[in-house]
Write a sequence for this structure.
């Protein structure tokens, strides 16, 4: 990639995108050299000017794009009116998605990735990129942990992508180039965020929690990514220092006029010019924006009709999902698209990424199986008081309980197959399914004669349960359930995302990856059960 050079984004517009059979005003020799360069790069043309813009165009006969996608929105919703009522402040309409006390960016990324890989073989994934601004570990690769949970191949390349709300689309661009470099391969991109705004502030009303994942590859794709354009913009509009929890921003008018509504229209116009397309060529424009006001203003300035061409921003139902928002919006748009539709995908954050996509015939079968709307409609409501407790924004008097024992790194490493990938064992002689992995079968006593048995995607039913009001929890009571799995096996599990009064014998449940406990700087993750969504 050509290194970017410093300069103002208001500098002269210089873009040269070479296409086959096009005339070059500088002479035939330049055009021939450009053609040879295209051939050397296997169809990828890149150029940057002194303003820091980079244009990437994908050529050639290979179709690259999205092979599958999935989203995860937490079960709970918080009404914005409840927040305003608590603070005796202004009340905005709608609601936002709120992660449970035992969820974080990593657990949501895993859930979205599991949805994305539901009909794919995880062993075929060559790389995993996890994009977020709120990853739990600053010095420990979060993507490696997610790869272990998803049971990806040991030689899969893993990478954390962060530092910007564009990290999701940045990761997609990296994945495209990765597939180009590796040949026939699949790269999993997951974006997840769980940002915090100051209590009784506009950001608190705006931010929602969620994750989205996409599998990037070649061949039979749901939507081809035909062209990509990127530019950066250095501006202190929305930011968060590394040692602070709350997102900060400058005065709203400056943030809007010097940031989003200036940079996005400029980037879109320049991208369309380099693609040789106009707003009329697109069935839908997918603008990732912090709120509908920003979106409508930028779309109009870019030449799009916000009412007919722009996809639903999901702000009223979920809030602004940070780095995950652009991927979630595209997934929702693909669910409503038809073969042949051309989509413009736009994401903002310290600059702007613009991509042009074309929907293929494969979308017809796929969107019937996985819909974003199903996940959006699977919800329950929580209170603002519980939200404050879950985020530890208030600190009630702690119960008088013994101190939690520190986590053991050797034990976590030893049990990683059972604890992270959720494998049990199935005896080869008698067929008994057991958890955790047992060297000696509890039924026929056969030794070291078993196959690994995956539980993560199994459903089960509650055999018995109890509510513990004495256990330390941010969401009391703690519900424990004995779960019998379809196909065999039983586990004693925490039950989360539940209404204690609605728990019953024979309730169908599924598995979900969650936070378990935090000690001495180590976040221990484990699996819990939840009512089937």
């Amino acid at each position: 990639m050509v290194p970017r050079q410093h300069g103002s984004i208001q500098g002269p517009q210089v873009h040269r995108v070479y296409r086959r059979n096009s005339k070059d005003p500088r002479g035939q020799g330049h055009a021939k050299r450009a053609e040879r360069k295209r051939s050397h790069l296997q169809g990828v043309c890149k150029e940057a000017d002194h303003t820091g813009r980079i244009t990437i165009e994908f050529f050639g006969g290979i179709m690259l794009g999205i092979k599958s996608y999935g989203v995860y929105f937490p079960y709970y919703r918080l009404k914005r009116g409840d927040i305003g009522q608590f603070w005796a402040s202004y009340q905005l309409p709608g609601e936002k998605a709120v992660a449970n006390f035992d969820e974080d960016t990593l657990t949501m990324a895993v859930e979205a990735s599991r949805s994305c890989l539901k009909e794919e073989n995880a062993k075929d994934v060559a790389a995993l990129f996890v994009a977020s601004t709120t990853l739990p570990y600053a010095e420990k690769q979060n993507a490696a942990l997610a790869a272990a949970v998803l049971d990806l191949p040991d030689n899969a390349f893993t990478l954390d992508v962060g530092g910007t709300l564009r990290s999701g689309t940045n990761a997609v661009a990296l994945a495209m180039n990765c597939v180009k470099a590796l040949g026939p391969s699949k790269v999993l991109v997951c974006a997840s965020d769980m940002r915090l705004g100051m209590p009784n502030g506009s950001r608190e009303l705006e931010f929602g929690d969620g994750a989205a994942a996409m599998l990037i590859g070649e061949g039979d794709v749901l939507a081809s990514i035909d062209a990509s354009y990127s530019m950066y913009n250095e501006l202190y509009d929305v930011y968060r220092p590394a040692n602070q929890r709350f997102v900060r921003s400058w005065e709203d008018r400056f943030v809007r006029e010097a940031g989003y509504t200036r940079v996005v229209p400029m980037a879109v116009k320049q991208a369309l010019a380099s693609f040789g397309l106009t707003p009329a060529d697109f069935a839908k424009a997918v603008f990732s924006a912090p709120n509908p006001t920003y979106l409508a203003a930028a779309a109009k300035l870019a030449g799009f009709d916000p009412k007919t061409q722009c996809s639903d921003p999901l702000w009223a139902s979920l809030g602004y999902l940070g780095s995950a928002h652009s991927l979630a919006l595209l997934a929702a748009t693909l669910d409503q698209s038809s073969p042949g539709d051309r989509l413009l995908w736009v994401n903002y954050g310290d600059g702007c990424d613009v991509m042009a996509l074309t929907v293929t015939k494969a979308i017809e079968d796929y969107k019937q199986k996985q819909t974003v709307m199903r996940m959006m409609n699977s919800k329950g409501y929580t209170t603002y008081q519980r939200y404050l407790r879950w985020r530890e924004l208030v600190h009630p008097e702690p119960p008088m309980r013994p101190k939690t024992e520190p986590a053991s790194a050797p034990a976590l490493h030893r049990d990683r197959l059972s604890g992270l990938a959720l494998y049990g064992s199935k005896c080869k002689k008698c067929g008994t399914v057991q958890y955790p992995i047992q060297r000696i079968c509890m039924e026929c006593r056969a030794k070291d004669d078993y196959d690994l048995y995956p539980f993560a995607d199994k459903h089960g039913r509650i055999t018995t349960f109890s509510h513990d009001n004495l256990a330390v929890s941010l969401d009391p009571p703690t519900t424990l359930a004995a779960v019998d799995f379809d196909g065999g096996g039983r586990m004693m599990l925490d039950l989360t995302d539940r209404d204690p009064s609605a728990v019953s014998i024979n309730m169908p449940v599924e598995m979900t990856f969650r936070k378990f406990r935090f000690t001495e700087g180590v976040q221990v993750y484990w699996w819990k059960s939840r009512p089937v969504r």
In short: The two ends are 44 Å apart (CA to CA). The CA atoms of residues 175 and 187 lie 6 Å apart.
